[in-house]
Amino acid sequence: MEYRKIGKTGLSASVIGLGSEHLDGKPYAVVEETIHAALDQGINIMDLFMPGDEVRHNIGKALGNRRKEMIIQGHIGSVDLSEQYDISRDLPTCQRYFEQLLKHLGTDYIDVGMLFFIDSDEALEQIFTNGIVDYALELKRQGVIRAIGTSSHNPVVARKLLETGVVDLMMFSINPAFDMTPAGTDVLTTMEELSEQQYVTIDPVRADLYKYCEQQEIAITVMKTLGGGRLLSAEHSPFKKAMSVTQCIHYALTRPGVVSTMIGCQSAKQVEEAVAYLQTTEQERDYMEIISGYRGEGSGQCVYCNHCQPCPVNIDIAMVNKYLDIARLDTAQIPPSIKQHYRSLSASGADCIACGSCEDKCPFSVSIIRNMEQAEALLR
Length: 380
Ligand code: SF4
Ligand code: SF4
What we know:
Helix content: 25-40%
Structural class: alpha/beta
Bound molecules: iron/sulfur cluster
CATH superfamily of the largest domain: NADP-dependent oxidoreductase domain
């Protein structure tokens, strides 16, 4: 397994995480098999947003004395008052469900307390005015949660929340189709009409959100990595070609700021299939054939796909471009962490011999040679 640092929290997450939604309503044996397989494969982070008593209890029981091996994202505001998934912004209700989460899991702490489903300005306002953010801060002060997270599908609202400085981690919906959806569009409702969407290039508001997270050391965990399975089907994908699970995972993991993809599993076999990503080749991970036809002509913006490899001097071109893009957000205040990451690369912009082979292969017309020079100038 590979692990990435969760921002400033001191924690590290496995790049493959466990989404547990599909364990809801399943017998305990299924929950146990899935959780144990995940732990045995080195998965150390899972999302648990479901509000139901039984699934929470089953997950707690399956974790048992291995509880400390798993970073749990537990949500504040996920409820089932009318016996279905729902959202509450009422403080006493949020408190009651969060306390029940601790009880059912048989634990006295949740690693990441998640401000649930912050997709609208109204939700953003409510969590501040109704005392829910203060509640999360108090839980963190008491050590009941170790970090504050949030979940969102809306890049504009998410950015506003992140800019308050309250959040250490954001779970966000990321896949190529969502990323090519204009920021103002509700990806959840338009998912049904994906094939009618106009996919041109990665939306700049979304791209900036991910760069901002990396700049600010706010970790991103990813939901909807497979687009609810639609991206795996040529019939249902807006790209009219099926992506593989490996390509979808790789796309998410190559966005700035991303530390882990939460893959929904309901068996040991599915866990193994997700973790198999780690054994795949660069060719198997390459997703450019799927989305390159949808690029804006000569956009010049790197999407971090590494389709331009191999480089004769072994520069990780996508990684250099990624650090450069983050540095360009504010060249006067480049985060030391970004400079440090750049300088620790085994080959960097200084090693570029301007052979141009990468520029011939890049479907997005990125000025790679110029970028290598700029990276060296800004980040060395
Ligand atoms: S420079 Fe082009 S080919 Fe290389 S990683 Fe960026 S977008 Fe992909
Ligand atoms: S131009 Fe530079 S970065 Fe591109 S392949 Fe050649 S050496 Fe590598």
